[in-house]
Amino acid sequence: MKRVFLGTFLLFVLCACNQDKQYPNLFYIKDGYVGWVEVEYNKEGAFPTSKEGTYNVLWVDENGKAETEEPPPEQGWTNNRYYYFAENGDRKELKLSEKIHGATTTKKNNEEKAIEYFFVGNEKQFEDQKGEYKREGKQ
């Protein structure tokens, strides 16, 4: 019985190690931006994504848009980080549930292309603008 358990455990570990590693994203958002952010994944010709440690770095422009050639995040939890980024290079971390709300990722017709949405601002700003953003497929 121990051998069966040990064999099953080792097989599980080997399979888990063989899967592609999903790296979390580090979002740099223009200092002071408040509103919805739209991130397009698998975007052909997008500016190459750089790395900061184990994070994929994504720059959000003044219109709340970012794009990357990287694949979309898989289902499950990732440890994304969010920062306001000032022109002088200063950055300020934005805490989840304080300044980041409503994060969701959509795929269209099982395509590889996906769009992630999240809101930057305080909870009242999020509640005030919750219905303002027209996500793909909704009026």
Helix-strand category: alpha/beta
Number of strands: 9
Number of helices: 2
Q: Return the average pLDDT rounded to an integer.
A: 80
Kindly provide the radius of gyration, computed on alpha-carbon positions and rounded to a whole number of angstroms. Answer: 18 Å
Name the shape in a single word.
globular
Helix content percent band: 10-25%
Give the end-to-end Cα distance, rounded to a whole number of Å. 58 Å
Residue stretches low in confidence (pLDDT < 50, at least 5 long) are: 4-19, 135-139
Describe the sheet with the most strands: 5 strands, mixed
Biggest sheet: strand arrangement: 3-4-1-6-7
Strand content: 25-35%
Order of helices and strands: HEEEEEEEEEH
How would you describe this structure in keywords?
globular, 2 helices, four-stranded mixed sheet, about 140 residues, alpha/beta, disordered C terminus
How do the helices and strands line up, and which of them pair or pack?
Layout: H1 2-18, E1 25-30, E2 35-41, E3 50-52, E4 55-60, E5 65-67, E6 81-85, E7 91-93, E8 100-107, E9 114-120, H2 123-129
Written overview of the protein:
The longest helix has 17 residues, at 2-18. It is built from two helices and nine strands, in the order αβββββββββα. It has helices spanning 2-18, 123-129, and strands at 25-30, 35-41, 50-52, 55-60, 65-67, 81-85, 91-93, 100-107, 114-120. The strands form two sheets. It has a five-stranded mixed β-sheet with strand order 3-4-1-6-7, with no helix packed on it. Helix content is 17%, strand content 35%.
